[in-house]
Amino acid sequence: MRATLAWNGEVSLFALKAIREAFLPPYEFRETVRHLFEIGWKSLPLITTSGFAIGVVLSMHTRASLERFGAEALIPAGLGLALVRETGPLITALLVAGRVGAGIGA
What we know:
Distance between the termini: 43 Å
Helix content: over 70%
Structural class: mainly alpha
Shape: extended
Low-confidence stretches: none
Number of strands: 0
């Protein structure tokens, strides 16, 4: 219990120091915008293409299950929830991390 509280305290102090350092000069807005462009904007085609492919596969698998119960009308709502809330952020994070990590490693 004591070790857990000590660890939580250390993590909290680290977070506070990181937040404080983020607001101290020098501000490098140009570098921040460059990173946003390199990491975010250049990853967009990969994310949208893979998101579309995952949506198609997910709809094909979901359709078979929902047809048995006569609930084909629920496929769009279910896909929207599944992709936007559940798998979308996960797949996006994995793809961006892989793309950026490979780019930095190269």
